[in-house]
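Work Package 4 report. The design task specified in the project plan requires that, given a folded chain encoded as structure tokens, an amino acid be chosen for each position. We show below one input record used in the internal validation round.
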């Protein structure tokens, strides 16, 4: 994982452990979204650009905070704009 559970919890301002599994699932989902947008695995980065990490945290935050009503289209459009410079054709 490019974003650890601890980093995600700090970003989300979550102190307890009761949502650890849920947050971990959102980290994995965010990584899959990024890989789909980038069109290559995140493991290919030798050094992860800060923009990619911020896109992951943005996705994790939206998935966690708006899990009942997340607008996936808007989320993907925003992430695509963030990741555009690294995207493969």
């Amino acid at each position: 994982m490019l974003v650890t559970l601890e980093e995600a919890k700090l970003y989300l301002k979550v102190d307890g452990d009761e949502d650890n599994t849920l947050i971990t699932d959102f980290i994995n989902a965010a990584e899959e979204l990024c890989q789909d947008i980038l069109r290559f695995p995140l493991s290919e980065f030798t050094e992860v650009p800060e923009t990619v990490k911020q896109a992951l945290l943005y996705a994790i935050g939206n998935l966690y905070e708006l899990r009942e009503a997340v607008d996936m289209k808007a989320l993907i459009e925003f992430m695509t704009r963030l990741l555009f410079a690294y995207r493969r054709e």
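The mean pLDDT is 96. Validation will be extended to a larger panel in the next phase.
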